[in-house]
Amino acid sequence: MKIIANDSEFEINYGCSLPEFLEFAGYQLGLVVVERNRQALSPSEACNTILEDGDRLEIVKIVAGG
Questions:
Q1: Alpha carbon distance 17, 11 (integer Å)
Q2: At 25, is the secondary structure helix, strand, or coil?
Q3: Helix, strand, coil shares of the chain as percentages rounded to 5?
Q4: Which terminal Cβ of the chain has fewer Cβ within 10 Å, N or C?
Q5: What is the distance between the alpha carbons of residues 9 and 3, in angstroms, rounded to a whole number?
Q6: CATH code, domain with 51
């Protein structure tokens, strides 16, 4: 199945979880904010999300500063 993440297309296996995809794409779940189909996901939602064909993700790295 295909998803779009940050304007790039990815072919992933059915049943792929969001944490699995993030690891594959080089991200750490605790260090990003994810929007799925224009809806921001809480950390607990992100942990339990199974991706579906056609999902659109926006992944933003969290940056600490002061």
A1: 13
A2: helix
A3: 25, 35, 40
A4: C
A5: 6
A6: 3.10.20.30
| pLDDT greater than 90 at residue 66 | no
C-alpha to C-alpha distance for 49 and 65, rounded to whole angstroms: 29
Q: Domain residues for 31?
A: 2-61
pTM beyond cutoff 0.85 = yes
CA 23 vs CA 17, 27, 56: distances in Å: 10, 5, 17
Is residue 23 included in any domain, yes or no? yes
Residue with tokens 């500063």: 65
pLDDT band at 56 (very low <50, low <70, confident <90, very high): very high
pLDDT higher than 90, residue 36 = yes
Residue 3's closest CA among 35, 32, 26?
A: 35
